[in-house]
Design brief:
This protein has 79 residues and is of the alpha+beta class. Helix content is 32%, strand content 37%. β4 and β5 form a beta hairpin. The longest helix has 21 residues. The termini are far apart. The relative contact order is 0.25.
């Protein structure tokens, strides 16, 4: 299994770097988990009256390569 890191970003700024990461069998599983987490976080933010347009997860592999950017607004189906 490979380790993937979900860095929380606000636009171009990384606001929380994932230093531990999570292990998944495939990159697709990591993307699915990031999308689910983004959807849940977007719902919480919206309920609290916050905007989610610039929030996103940047998924990186253990070698540092960017696998995918998951915007919260897209994960929540609001785009």
């Amino acid at each position: 299994m490979a380790r993937y890191y979900f860095h929380l970003r606000h636009g171009e700024i990384t606001i929380a770097e994932d230093l531990e990461g999570l292990e998944f069998r495939t990159p697709e599983m990591a993307i699915e988990e990031a999308t689910k987490a983004a959807r849940e976080m977007a719902a919480e933010m919206i309920l609290a009256g916050h905007r989610v347009e610039d929030q996103e997860f940047e998924i990186r592999s253990s070698d540092g390569a960017v696998l995918k950017i998951v915007p919260f607004i897209s994960a929540a189906g609001l785009d």
